[in-house]
Amino acid sequence: MKLAKKYYAVRKGRVPGIYKTWKEAEEQVKGFPGAEYKSFERLEDAKAYMEGKNECICPELDTETMIAYVDGSYDEVCGSGIVLCYRGKKEEYYFWTNIEEFKDSRNITGEIMAALFAMDYALKKGARKLVLRYDLEGLEKWATEEYRTNKLVTKVYRHYYRKFCQMGLKVVFEKIKSHSGNFCNDEADSLAKKASKKESNVEWMPEDFESIIRTLTKKGGCL
């Protein structure tokens, strides 16, 4: 199995800098009083850390590509958090879902709804490609049919994923390890937690959502 590439940022050490291997970074921090260092999966996050910025920095993209960091949480309701990078701007959205048929899936529902929001938003903004960064493994595998859609919420997710793809959106799935030092993913996580307490900055549901739920429920998951 291919290991994810990492960048090791040494903020305080013998020779501060960004290193491509732990061995190089370790030489700078081992035995160094008050050493500060952290590993990242993205170079831009490592650079932000070196500059003392603990925030999500959007990378440069072509005008037809959007990046979305999505996460879900559960407390009072299912919360969804989304951080979007598009045309040099960062946008943040969070909302909650309280659908009886989805409640037992909790944070999974939150992340699925966040992903669908990102797909819908990308199309409405004119993006042709969405890089979806997430930490829920099933998000890609339910879409590509590697996993069975045994629950209603996953059936609904696959339906809308197919619909958005048919409308011309290309979705590229990129899994991110939870709490791996990715500031954008951490922001999406914080937004989802806020939403799970019935806080929101946007109201959203996919088109024909209630009708699709009824149809899938009656037909046992088939449309």
Provide structural commentary.
The chain is of the alpha/beta class and 223 residues long. It has two domains: 7-51, Ribonuclease HI, Chain A (3-Layer(aba) Sandwich), CATH 3.40.970.10; 65-217, Ribonuclease H-like superfamily/Ribonuclease H (Nucleotidyltransferase, domain 5). It contains seven helices and eight strands. It has a five-stranded mixed β-sheet with strand order 6-5-4-7-8. Strands 2-1-3 form a three-stranded antiparallel β-sheet, sandwiched between helices. Strand 5 (78-86) and strand 6 form a beta hairpin. Helix 3 packs parallel to helix 5 (152-166). It is elongated, with a radius of gyration of 19 Å. The chain starts with 6 loop residues before the first strand and ends in a 5-residue tail after the last helix. The model has no long low-confidence stretch (mean pLDDT 90). Endonuclease that specifically degrades the RNA of RNA-DNA hybrids. Belongs to the RNase H family. Keywords: Endonuclease, Hydrolase, Magnesium, Metal-binding, Nuclease. InterPro entries: Ribosomal_bL9/RNase_H1_N (IPR009027), RNase_H (IPR050092), RNase_H1_N (IPR011320), RNase_H1_N_sf (IPR037056), RNaseH-like_sf (IPR012337), RNaseH_domain (IPR002156), RNaseH_sf (IPR036397). It holds the Pfam family RNase_H.
